[in-house]
Amino acid sequence: MSGQPMPIATRATVTGQPPPSSDCAAERLPPPDRGLLGRFTRAVWRIARVGLIAYLLVLLGLMLLENHLIFFPAKYPVGNWQPDDLDVEDAYFTAADGTRLHGWYLEHPHPRGHVLFAHGNAGNITWRAEILRQLHDRLGVSVLIFDYRGYGRSEGSPNEEGVLADARAARRWLARRADIDEQSIILLGRSIGGAVVVDLAARDGARALVLESTFTSLPDVAVGHYPWAPVRWLMRTRLNSLEKIQNYHGPLLMSHGDADRIVPYQLGRRLFEAAPSRNKKFITLRGGDHNDPQPASYYEQLDAFLNTLEPVPQP
């Protein structure tokens, strides 16, 4: 067998199987499925898009329902409109835009002062009958409490511009009824009512300003209740007392509970510190929440504060 090359033995020739092809190797090592990553990305984007749309719809709802989330009026006949041992006079007057308003006037035979009381954002004047008793019987003042538009017997619907106009109309009625200047009236406001009377005092002055559990601005309050929403940009209602109070230089008494869960205590302190008045005092109500009644010690200090006021010039 000389002259013939020796054949080279291979695994195929030994086993009788054909050599592996490239197709078989590809089956043993499949390439990654790039379509899976794409499908996952698209699913994540769809979920994010739905979540974003839902979030924007919630923000739109907050904007459209803003006044309903701020003002909680109780319309007549809700409440006790004939309170025992409280000889109130019905006061009817009209705001500058023609809205007819209602309040209660409780006259003292020998008043040491005349108080305009702006209540909080819920209920109506009948819910404050006990406060009227304290002011009239304990402190010896005549008091006008009024309902904002949409509350109690007052017509209309509440909004920032409207409730501020209502307070101006109420102050005008009280001044005429008591035959005194509007600037001789003591302005008392609780919660949102504090922002209402700050507006009056900053514009025109007052004999004194008394604020209970009030705030710097309404967006500052809303931030604590809706931290997930850009409320400072969305809210139309501002009630910016922090800015306005810098224009009031008269006597000021403020009180705030340090356990307030609706209007944080720190907001009350900030408002007090921004006031330029030289005759001002801040009362911390230890353990007091927003809707707790004022304790006896508060009325004692309010009584002492009233004693510091200049007497009203007689006509």
Number of DSSP strands? 10
Indicate the structural class.
Answer: alpha/beta
What is the overall shape? Answer: elongated
Question: Per DSSP, what share of the residues sits in E-state strands of 2 or more residues?
Answer: 15-25%
Separation, N- and C-terminal Cα atoms: 149 Å
CATH architecture of the largest domain: 3-Layer(aba) Sandwich
Strand order of the largest sheet: 2-3-6-4-7-8-9-10
User: Could you tell me the mean pLDDT?
Assistant: 90
Rg from alpha-carbon coordinates: 35 Å
Low-confidence segments:
1-16, 22-26
Give me the oligomer status.
single chain
> Which sequence of SSEs, written as H and E, runs from N to C?
HHHHEEEEEHEHEHEHHHEHEH
CATH topology of the largest domain: Rossmann fold
- The CATH superfamily of the largest domain bears the name Alpha/Beta hydrolase fold, catalytic domain
Helix content: 40-55%
Let me know the largest β-sheet: 8 strands, mixed
Total helices: the number is: 12
CATH class of the largest domain: Alpha Beta
Overall tally of structural domains: 2
